[in-house]
Amino acid sequence: MYRKGRSIMKHLLTIAGSDSSGGAGIQADLKTFAAHGTFGMSVITAVTAQNTTGVTRIQNIDAEVVAAQIDAVFSDIHVDAVKVGMVSITPIIETIAKKMKAYVPSYLVVDPVMVATSGAYLLEETARRTLLEKLLPLASVITPNMMEGEVLSGMTIRSKDDMEKAAHAILDACGAAVLLKGGHLAQTADDYLLEKDGRGTWLLGRHIDNSNTHGTGCSLSSALASELALGHTLPEAAQLAKDYVALGIEHGLPVGHGHGPIHHFVSLYEKAGIGK
């Protein structure tokens, strides 16, 4: 993937938190970038003490250090797409928004990590408002799950009809395309993509009987950013990203005592004959 000494590989940047267990956050993003044949770079917003059973400690990085990391990457390396994940405090959100306005990446995918699996809010109200007003409007597409969709839309989501209405409310609120994930639907795992021009597309899915799903949201948004950078349209990129994560869930790894991670490299391993 080199030409005259220069890489022609796409360069992807993740701005997110670190997961010490390796299944989600920065670690999942970098694995996903690599699985898509892209070169991954990272800006760490928080360090978490985390494993497959939960998060026990979070240390946010100073906003000035986040800014310095972003400047270090953009000042030296061409960035084809950016994925933003865990950003839990207002100063960091404001810093990222300011830098994205300055550098204007071709694609900005934001995974609004607002609600934990337990249902607990990860963002204070002021930080949620800053996210909605300053960062999400800059995004090419955002990827909330149903609980996050409820926070962003102010609606209760229980059905596919609710998902469509919520996606339109979110689009109206922030102006970004919305990939609303339906993994918590009762009968299906269908996702709803609403583009900026109002075109809606259902991406059909099924529930997979595997509890090793740690890092699915991080991996989906990173796969989406990768596919966009590789030249796919938003509907194409969304479907490819969904297929990638579904395969990873199907072959989820029994690591740890809780919900293990998805298998980010299952296709590469199969081609190499590893694990057979």
UniProtKB/TrEMBL annotation:
Pathway: Cofactor biosynthesis; thiamine diphosphate biosynthesis; 4-amino-2-methyl-5-diphosphomethylpyrimidine from 5-amino-1-(5-phospho-D-ribosyl)imidazole: step 2/3; Cofactor biosynthesis; thiamine diphosphate biosynthesis; 4-amino-2-methyl-5-diphosphomethylpyrimidine from 5-amino-1-(5-phospho-D-ribosyl)imidazole: step 3/3. GO terms for cellular component: cytosol. InterPro entries: HMP/HMP-P_kinase_dom, PM/HMP-P_kinase-1, Ribokinase-like. Its EC number is 2.7.1.49, 2.7.4.7. GO terms for molecular function: ATP binding; hydroxymethylpyrimidine kinase activity; phosphomethylpyrimidine kinase activity. Pfam families: Phos_pyr_kin (PF08543). Residues 19-263 form the Pyridoxamine kinase/Phosphomethylpyrimidine kinase domain. GO terms for biological process: thiamine biosynthetic process. It comes from the Bacteria. The keyword Transferase applies. Transmembrane segments: none annotated. Coiled coil: none annotated. Keywords: ATP-binding, Kinase, Nucleotide-binding, Thiamine biosynthesis, Transferase. It catalyses: 4-amino-5-hydroxymethyl-2-methylpyrimidine + ATP = 4-amino-2-methyl-5-(phosphooxymethyl)pyrimidine + ADP + H(+); 4-amino-2-methyl-5-(phosphooxymethyl)pyrimidine + ATP = 4-amino-2-methyl-5-(diphosphooxymethyl)pyrimidine + ADP. The keyword ATP-binding applies. Belongs to the ThiD family. This is Hydroxymethylpyrimidine/phosphomethylpyrimidine kinase. The gene is thiD.
